[in-house]
Amino acid sequence: KTLVLKISGKFVSPYDTPLVEGYAKTLEALRRKYKLAVVVGGGSVARKYIELAPPSKGLKDLIGIEVSRLNALLLSMHTPSAKKVIPKSASEVLELWDGEDILIVGGLQPGQSTNAVALVVAELVGADLVVNATTVDAVYDKPPSQPGAKRIEKIKARELQRLLESFDWKNEPGRYELMDSIALQIAERSKIPIAVIYGGEPERIPSIVEEEAWGTLILP
Ligand code: U5P
């Protein structure tokens, strides 16, 4: 099986909760069972740069992309079986992917988040599943901070898109909350499920994947 693991930038980036060593071990463990590609987000450092960049959304995205690539490079340096080059385009992803080494990717192009990158990479490498290790343990029917929010066990990508639109959901640099619409659209067109799990305890991820103990499963 081929897996794409998307790791929230918050777990890799300085000034958040960097769990780089823990993730490096987890990647090595997953690699024993799966062909593995990894996509890393930008975390708070990207948000800070986005705040300081000029108002152009394209420019803000570009600087966010650079930060996610830096996070990806840091993780690759700690991961013995990972390629030490971070691909900058879809064709470089294809060029570097051999199904043997772990391929770690950051951002690719403006207009999307690294969640979309995870789905693009999943299409390119023919992944069976995207596992999204994020700062919440699951998708909820309203913002989890609100009283009475219920965990959603399974949801169709299209339904989730509608649900997110009913929240204050913005396709803006640094603010692609949880998922962006591009990610959900690609999941749907290529029938790739996305499993949402809590990423703050990387050592638990191999058994979560083994047991399919997802927080939420987003079905295409
Ligand atoms: N970003 C892009 N394109 C990508 C990946 C990331 O423009 O392919 C930018 C967005 O502004 C995003 C930021 O909010 O980098 C950091 O990525 P993320 O942590 O939000 O996924």
Tell me what the structure shows.
It is a single chain. With 220 residues, the protein is an alpha/beta fold. The protein has one domain: Acetylglutamate kinase-like (Carbamate kinase), CATH 3.40.1160. 40% of the residues lie in helices and 17% in strands. It has a 7-stranded mixed beta sheet, with helices on both faces. A two-stranded antiparallel ribbon has the order 5-6. Strand 1, helix 1 (20-31) and strand 2 form a beta-alpha-beta unit. The mean pLDDT is 95. The protein binds uridine-5'-monophosphate. Uridine-5'-monophosphate is lined by residues 9, 41-42, 46, 50, 60-61, 64-65, 68, 107-110, 112-114, 117, 173-174, 176.
Structure class:
alpha/beta
Order of helices and strands: EHEHHHEHEEEEHHEHE
Could you tell me which ligands this complex binds, including any ions or cofactors? uridine-5'-monophosphate
Low-confidence parts: none
CATH class: Alpha Beta
Number of strands: 9
What is the CATH-assigned architecture? 3-Layer(aba) Sandwich
Output mean pLDDT. 95
Main-sheet strand order equals 3-2-1-4-8-9-7
How much strand content do the residues show?
15-25%
Helix content: 40-55%
Number of domains: 1
Put simply, the count of helices is 8
The largest sheet is: 7 strands, mixed
Whole-angstrom Rg: 16 Å
